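Minimal example, chain plus NAP.
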Amino acid sequence: MAKVAFLGLGVMGYPMAGHLAAAGHEVTVFNRTAAKAESWVAQHGGASAATPAEAAREAEFIFACVGEDDDVRQMTTGENGAFSSMQKEAVFIDNTTASADVAREIYATATAAGLHFIDAPVSGGQAGAENGKLTVMCGGDEAAYARAEPLMACYGARVTLMGASGAGQLTKMVNQICIAGLVQGLSEALNFGQKADLDMDKVLGVISGGAAQSWQMENRGTTMVRDEFDFGFAVDWMIKDLKICLAEAANNGAELPVTATVAQFYKALSNKGFGRNDTSSLIRLLNS
Ligand SMILES: NC(=O)c1ccc[n+]([C@@H]2O[C@H](COP(=O)([O-])OP(=O)(O)OC[C@H]3O[C@@H](n4cnc5c(N)ncnc54)[C@H](OP(=O)(O)O)[C@@H]3O)[C@@H](O)[C@H]2O)c1
């Protein structure tokens, strides 16, 4: 069993850290809002620390699941960041969805300091984190990955090294581009069905077994027709993710016309005050 630190106990990090503790690892948690760290320790045991550096000091593996690029910098190279106290050869596993550029930047800093850094964004949502069934897409060195993989398997059903540093984040971008267009298509279809006065539970029951089936339809269709969005993957996080995808596309020359349009729709939802609602709330713009 390993000594582990987990930084960031949000919707995703809280249950992910819980799976590491349930597997028998010795977990020290850090969360910016200390109350969450206290309730995590009350539920799972282990310890809490006042800073990322303190949490990381004795850990062989340090996990983070925070918001975006600058948050990852704060957790690693920032003041009281983990890199200021990590032992040589310790592995930092970043489960945040961030840019490939920040992954490569922090990987370079880690390598120069004799540390290891793996970008390891996840897919599978709140339910995947709670059930320990996430997909984990990794970028980094094979040897560090091989050491970290059994720990990531505590919360991941599919854990894969995609390539060099940044490859995990690039793979997650592919995932988010798929989701953006898909959720807009699903929103238009369900809204159309409602306007046509169809029994939408019956519609979903019939078409979810056919070619239109998707994770979004399975897991979000029913709540979308009921106008329920107070859970899941926040609109503001999707805006961040699509911004990263569009910036990367501007560099590699990929065309993302649908993704760019859907990004505008998410911004409109956020401007209306729905930034913390689930991404399936795109349908709101059609039925309001
Ligand atoms: N939710 C999903 O379905 C989902 C799915 C896949 C990937 N993701 C990605 O996973 C990451 C976390 O998502 P989430 O839904 O768990 O978000 P969340 O519930 O908003 O939690 C964010 C966590 O990061 C911490 N944090 C943010 N900025 C920080 C900073 N500057 N310094 C220290 N801590 C900071 C927050 O601390 P406080 O408690 O103090 O605010 C909180 O613990 C994001 O990159 C997101 O895109 C989310």
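The chain is about 50% helix and 15% strand. The chain has two domains: 3-164, 170-287.
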